[in-house]
Amino acid sequence: MLKAVLRWAIPLIALLIIGPAAGWLTGSLRSPTGSEQTTPLLAASLGAGAVALVGCFVIAAVTGAVAAAIIGPLYGLFSAGLVLAWATGQTGTIDLILRDAAPASPLMKLALEGALCAVFGVGVAWVIQQAGTGYPATPGAAAHTTHQSPLAPTSLVAIAMATAVAALIALI
Length: 172
Prior knowledge:
By secondary structure, the chain is mainly α. The protein has helices at 2-27, 46-70, 73-89, 94-100, 107-131, 153-171.
């Protein structure tokens, strides 16, 4: 019974409490012109933007790791995704960001930010995988020793390589 309650409670807490806190980190950033339409690396204060970016991923990793340790790695990834959805929902839209930065093009900074987010995302997935080791890949399946996590180490290497290639292409 407790596990059934936690299966619903942890993602709801991530959606309704922890996610808005992460969204506040990115939502409080302002562009150099004072607009709310910005992202962490385009913010007027690069230090505040970096803290917001790293802070959101740390909050997501902790939330996902707790969910993975209690329920399983799939719920951990889901809970972390809910937190990061709030964080990205509070940033600006691309058309308004480009309009706000009219004389200068922020596309290189946006590409770099995308690459950083991809690398941090792989790190969050790895933390969640480690916290959820020992749980079955499918909810309801029996745990066994041959498969301990839905993300094998080779999968993480493949994700990291694809991220690196995409980042290089975006920067060129």
